[in-house]
Amino acid sequence: MVNQELLKKLYDTAFTNEEKYGGCAQCTIGSVKTHLGGVSDNLFQAATALAGGVAASGNTCGACTAGILALGTFLGRDFENFGTEIGIENKNKVTEMGRKLLTKFESEYGSFKCSDIHEKLYGNIYRMYIPEEKEQFIAAGGHGENGCTMVCGKAAQWVAEILDEEGLLK
Questions:
Q1: Distance between CA atoms of residues 24 and 48, nearest Å
Q2: Distance CA 102, CA 97 (A)
Q3: Does residue 115 sit in helix, strand or coil?
Q4: What are the Cα distances from residue 9, in Å, to 5, 35, 86, 116, 157?
Q5: Phi then psi for 83, rounded to 5 degrees?
Q6: Each residue of 34-91: pLDDT tens digit?
Q7: DSSP H helices in 37-129
Q8: pTM over 0.70
Q9: How far is the C-alpha of 112 from the C-alpha of 42, rounded, in Å?
Q10: Complete DSSP assignment for 116-139
Q11: Which pLDDT does position 170 carry in this prediction?
Q12: Phi first, then psi: what are they for 113, rounded to 5°?
């Protein structure tokens, strides 16, 4: 079982990152990087445009996508083993781990889609690429206590829980 203190740190860091800076994917993966390691600066940077459901499109939640990327850094198929048996085994295993994360999102929010999560949390769907709607999202509590800040915090915790279940958390 994951240490409760570690889970709190993961949650608090992701929450605070989202509250201060926005960008759910980087806020989530940044918390994993800070407390669990395994995440490169390049991967953190690459997560930039995943916010708002991938390029603000409202599709797969950026915190969820970042969580899956983070899981892959601990076991995913590397380039060196791309076509090997171990590479295929790792691909299959990390896909299974990713499914576990999706299931956690579905259980908590009814979906892993950003727009569906917005509707559940705020009663409205916000198109983050439209400045007026982004302002409405913030006014509705998007970066508040029960908003996407919470989603990021939970996603970071779930990554640690899944890694622990798989014996990959050090």
A1: 9
A2: 9
A3: helix
A4: 6, 7, 33, 27, 9
A5: -105, 10
A6: 999 999 999 999 999 999 999 999 999 999 999 999 999 999 999 999 999 999 999 9
A7: 41-46, 62-75, 85-109, 114-122
A8: yes
A9: 25
A10: HHHHHHHSS---TTSHHHHHHHHH
A11: 79
A12: -95, 130
